Amino acid sequence: MSVKEASGIEFSDKLMTFIEEWKSKKGNLVMILHKIQEEFDYIPRQAAIKTAVLLDIPLAKIYGVMTFYNFFKLEKPGKHNIQVCTGTACYLKGGVDLIEELEILLGIGVNTVTDDGIFSIESVRCIGCCGLAPVLLIDGEVFGKLTKDQLPEIVAKFKDK
Amino acid sequence: MAIKTRMDLKKIRADQEAGLVLDNKEEKNIQIIVGKGTCGIAAGAEKIFNTIIEEIEDQKIKNIIVKSAGCMGLCYVEPTIKLIVTGESETIYGNVDQETVRKIIERHVIYGRQVESHIFEKPAADILKEENDDNFDYRQYRIVLRNCGVIDPEKIDEYIVRDGYAALEKVIFQMTPSEVIDEIKASGLRGRGGAGFPTWMKWSFSKSVKSDKKYIICNADEGDPGAYMDRSTLEGDPHSVLEAMAIAGYAIGADEGIIYIRAEYPLAIKKLEIAIAQAREYGLFGRNILGSSFNFDFEIRLGAGAFVCGEETALIKSIEGDRGMPTPKPPFPAIEGLWGKPTIINNVETLANIPVIINKGSSWFAKLGTQKSRGTKVFALTGNINNSGLIEVPMGTTLREIVFDIGGGIPNGKAFKAVQTGGPSGGVLTEDFLDTPIDFDSLVAVGSMMGSGGMIVMDEDDCMVDIAKFYLEFCVEESCGKCAPCRIGTKKIYELLDKISKGKGELSDLQKIKEMGNAMTKASLCGLGQTAPNPVLSVIKAFEEEILEHITDQKCRAGKCKDLVTYTIDKENCIGCTVCARKCPVNCIEGERKVVHKIDQSLCIKCGACFEVCKFDAVIVS
Ligand SMILES: Cc1cc2nc3c(=O)[nH]c(=O)nc-3n(C[C@H](O)[C@H](O)[C@H](O)COP(=O)(O)O)c2cc1C
Ligand code: FES
Question: B89 and B216: one domain?
Fold first, then answer.
């Protein structure tokens, strides 16, 4: 792969420093992918290519790892990614109903993004707030003990953020 | 200040004690602790904390300390705060909003009168307090959670003053590695990650291997959906786990600890990072700990959302930066683990017990629990239960005590149906087992397993076919695909269950599920596939009648399997208000104002929206 291809994306200084620091450590790939996703909200193909060059490993290895773990996203999520918990406790308390209601509200399905790029819906397994089931997470903020009726208000709150 | 010697550690403890005594008893006789675990913050604890500070400043109250701590275990009424007046018993307030804060300050802090309407004591009320340490009659007993909701996890001194790092000091200076392992052996501690493997045995395997490098790994992957014991422990008391890892390192001759924690737990990760940094600065980790020749340090590695990575060999692969796929055992990690070196993998909760065992002695610990399962177990009590929360009970406590006494029973007057333990690897326990003392072996004997501590309560409205299907779907998604029995078996069983839930099942399907399940148990490579059939097999055993109803009568008694439910409108009750027709997302309800409505069954998606909005009980589910 050419260096030109690899230079199609800019990494922040912070990310570059992290990669430098971890480069010599064994088993660094998962940790580096986390940092990349932190910066871009997903792992763009160009970033994967650049990482392959920086770490001097095959791109196939990076994709092998990225696709194995649910946490890593290959597609850009919405500006506000709505993560609805479908762990056991939330499932019992109607987590799936929340997803269905959001699908109606936003007109998109799970793992897709609204046309304006503002929202996406994702189903996640347990964020450890089972006592507040059913819960969802937007930009790291947890909303618990939810009913379907509360969703329009929550969506509205983030729409203009 | 660096802690270079044992005397330095003692001095910190003494200074702090003196400080706290002064703070508490003389000038500041009131303490308010705000529970700031993930759940607490989600419910608004941060805002409550700030309101408290503002209020006491406004009112110029001087005799009070306000601090943050981890989870107090009352997840269902977060945010929670604890108010301690020196010399009185403590009060836990739940569902605290800004208004309540003002009331609490005005009435309780100033006039000493409790705000009754916000006192929530369950499930925490019956926790044994330290003063009568030997009284084991209390329902809850906190070893693992001893510091959670008590200390500020971001202040290492608060940990040190509660005997923190005393156990590490004790092993380094007063015990040989073999003595440490003997002490753990005598305590009877078994692994809390699910399998219940004797901790000392694993340690002694690793100790006996000669190697230039060994590792201690803390398994904080907590993949069981519906469980958060380890998250709460790490958020509320990270040092106890770190201290234990160093003790384990001393016992087997390892100098490096790795915490493998799921990325979904950002707060726990942050607390660990702070704890490690503070302990390093004190010189409690690193080289020549407390002036001895023992070295130990830490690294944090993040998981990335793969349940299978909780399995030991898969976890190792993940730390090595690969796809987290398990490898055959033997070789066992204790002999040949991370990078081929001897590696001990212990669960968070297992580890949190260790400093207490060292400090108080194995015979003290072994007094708690049952013959073969010593000590306590932390459970995350969730689902359809009144007091959902985090509890720690002695092994041998019965399900009835947990569900009905501590948990306060089932909400809305519904009937208890079952409890699921062990998550996707476990099974259901029915009413018949309410009086079974819970320990590792009794749960296996009745067809479930302890698992890591998720305890999910189901009531009459939960469908057992649906639950079994839920777990199988989870395993289909989480199977890593390496071995055929798990990859194909989970999918095939899921398909059969899906068929049954749609009323298209055949009687022979049950036999097929059983056969495939048994084959998976025998032939799968790792614990995931070996145990994935457990939930469905246990449901077949305990709720055969309910499954048969789905197959022969196309009936779901709980009304959860959508394909078996029809919504119709009762002519008598319908007043023609059009609310349901307007709510229906697919516009399949026909009807004008004051005319009885009708649902077009061919279009109905069975979302239940009409049923929920009807105020006149005119929508019938059958
Ligand atoms: C599929 C699967 C998932 C597991 N997930 C976890 C987990 O999330 N946390 C954990 O501590 N143990 C988990 N375990 C058990 C570990 O493999 C291992 O037995 C445990 O961490 C050992 O620690 P202990 O002896 O202290 O219990 C899992 C096992 C399997 C087969
Ligand atoms: S099941 Fe949803 S937070 Fe645990």
Answer: no
